[in-house]
């Protein structure tokens, strides 16, 4: 997906900015009490390109975009692409005095560089009251990707239950039928948010829009984001604010020029109500119950907290999804989100593999 190149192509500048970060390797305690500066703990390792996070009743879900596979389908805009059934959704939880994780569904389509880095697959996940939803990226027929199951889940909203993912709605079909942004016809469902009323909102990063999915599975155009600062919006992340409004993070900003926005949207009409600006490429957003906003900025290598107009940041290498425990306010973030479990070579040495961090005192 050409407009999302920045999500899968890492730069030397970004690597240099984040390579020196060394978090503690284990969680000292479940309550995670700390004083003074924020402290980070690694709570999950061995993940394949971890992206969006969702917190639900003591369980943290992470969308793993996978690591591609052995079948390579030629050169694309981001280089050689190899495909396989390596994408998954993983549950992380505290049990027996330690953090544990296991894949609640796996074997879903993934595309990546030959070394497994910069993958795309199941990039978004949302869990609410025990129900789990994911969104799978799209590939046009001319890309040479198989169309037989489970490859027929490309471009779909997925309901995940009992170790299986079934199609709940066809997201990319909305782009192919309506092309709401009226630019080139491209689709990449990248984030999903389950709303309390049973609707699901999906951010189509390539389509520059949001898709609303009704409780019955009907998908329709909901919100189109305008171009600004000489870039398309490319929405990547979703959150429901304490004010009941929908918030949407976008990739628009560049490393040297932080132009990305977090949009505020009416969750019923899709009308854009305003935005916060001045961010680098946004790949995750979340709120705590106090109304503080957390913004994950991929190439800036940081998660920024916006509280009463004041911004503070914690360094995180290639951060993606962000989630907040509503009970204790602890913050979780996907780290090294452009790497598979073995790490990826960005030209200045191999990175660690995909991880999830817990940030204490932030």
Task: Give the overall silhouette.
Answer: globular
| Main sheet attributes: strand count, strand direction, barrel closure | 5 strands, antiparallel
Number of strands: 25
- What's the total helix number? 3
Ends apart, CA distance between termini:
34 Å
Summed up:
With 362 residues, this protein is mainly beta. The relative contact order is 0.17.
Describe the protein's architecture and organization.
- This protein has 362 residues and is mainly beta.
- It is built from three helices and 25 strands.
- Strands 2, 3, 4, 5 and 6 form a five-stranded antiparallel beta sheet that branches.
- Strand 17 and strand 18 form a beta hairpin.
- It is globular, with a radius of gyration of 18 Å.
Using brief descriptors, characterize the structure shown.
mainly beta, about 350 residues, 4-stranded antiparallel beta sheet, disordered N terminus, single chain, 5-stranded antiparallel beta sheet, 3 helices
SSE order and pairing:
Elements: H1 5-8, H2 12-18, E1 39-47, E2 50-56, E3 59-64, E4 71-76, E5 79-95, E6 98-112, E7 122-128, E8 131-136, E9 156-161, E10 164-170, H3 172-178, E11 189-194, E12 200-204, E13 209-213, E14 219-224, E15 235-240, E16 246-250, E17 260-265, E18 272-279, E19 282-287, E20 293-297, E21 302-307, E22 310-315, E23 322-324, E24 331-335, E25 354-360
Antiparallel strand pairs: 1-25, 2-3, 3-5, 4-5, 5-6, 7-8, 8-9, 9-10, 11-12, 12-13, 13-14, 15-16, 16-17, 17-18, 19-20, 20-21, 21-22, 23-24, 24-25
């Amino acid at each position: 997906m050409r407009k999302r190149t920045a999500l899968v192509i890492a730069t030397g500048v970004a690597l240099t900015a984040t390579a020196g970060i060394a978090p503690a390797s284990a969680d000292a305690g479940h309550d995670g009490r700390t004083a003074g500066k924020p402290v980070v703990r690694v709570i999950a390792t061995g993940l394949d390109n971890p992206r969006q996070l969702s917190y639900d009743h003591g369980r943290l879900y992470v969308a793993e975009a996978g690591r591609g596979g052995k079948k390579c389908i030629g050169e694309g805009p981001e280089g050689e692409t190899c495909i396989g059934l390596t994408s998954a959704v993983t549950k992380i939880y505290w049990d027996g005095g330690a953090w544990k994780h296991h894949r609640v569904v796996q074997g879903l389509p993934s595309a990546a560089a030959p070394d497994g880095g910069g993958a795309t697959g199941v990039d978004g996940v949302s869990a609410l009251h025990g129900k789990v939803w994911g969104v799978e990226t799209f590939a046009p027929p001319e890309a040479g990707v198989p169309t037989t199951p489970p490859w027929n889940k490309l471009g779909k909203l997925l309901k995940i239950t009992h170790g299986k993912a079934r199609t709940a709605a066809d997201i990319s079909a909305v782009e192919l039928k309506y092309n709401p942004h009226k630019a080139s016809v491209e689709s990449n469902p990248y984030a999903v948010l389950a709303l309390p009323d049973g609707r699901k909102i999906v951010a189509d990063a390539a389509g520059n829009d949001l898709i609303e999915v009704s409780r019955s599975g009907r998908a329709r155009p909901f919100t189109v984001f305008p171009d600004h600062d000489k870039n398309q919006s490319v929405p990547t992340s979703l959150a429901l604010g304490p004010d009941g409004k929908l918030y949407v993070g976008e990739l628009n900003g560049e490393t040297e020029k932080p132009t990305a926005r977090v949009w505020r949207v009416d969750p019923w009409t899709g009308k854009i109500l305003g935005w916060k600006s001045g961010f680098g490429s946004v790949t995750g957003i979340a709120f705590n119950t106090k109304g503080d906003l957390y913004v994950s900025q991929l190439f800036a290598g940081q998660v920024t907290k916006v509280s009463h107009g004041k911004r503070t940041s914690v360094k995180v290498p290639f951060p993606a999804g962000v989630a907040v425990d509503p009970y204790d306010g602890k913050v979780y973030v996907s780290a090294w989100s452009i790497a598979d479990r073995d790490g990826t070579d960005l030209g200045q040495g191999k990175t660690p593999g995909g991880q999830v961090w817990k940030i204490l005192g932030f």
